[in-house]
Amino acid sequence: VQLQASGGGLVQTGGSLTVSCEASGNDFSINNWYWYRQAPGKLRQAVANILSSGVTNFIASVRGRFTISRDNAKNTVTLFLNNLKPEDTAVYYCNADGGYITSEGQHRPLDIWGKGTQVTVSS
Predict the structure, then answer these.
(1) Sign of the CA dihedral 28, 21, 68, 70?
(2) What's the pLDDT band for 50 if we cut at 50, 70, 90?
């Protein structure tokens, strides 16, 4: 099972971008999706998540500007970044947890990361 991230790019302050992530593979299920970001010289930071129940959570600095949605049928998650600020500039990473079935028919937990996608906000 792997995650493929897409989206991001360069935008001016106040603009909008989307970053998406798609899980692919065989015999797996996703419970919760997470988005993290890492700015140059800083630690990776949790940004938002959407749980299997549909409940969403955001860090204070993006609440009201970012939204998140998921498509369970397509195993995708999208983070909508609105009213972007220069401090939102970072590499954004998606992460998912869930489970998968091995070739021996055993259930195993799943915790996977996508490659990052760059979001750059110019002032």
Answers:
(1) negative
(2) very high
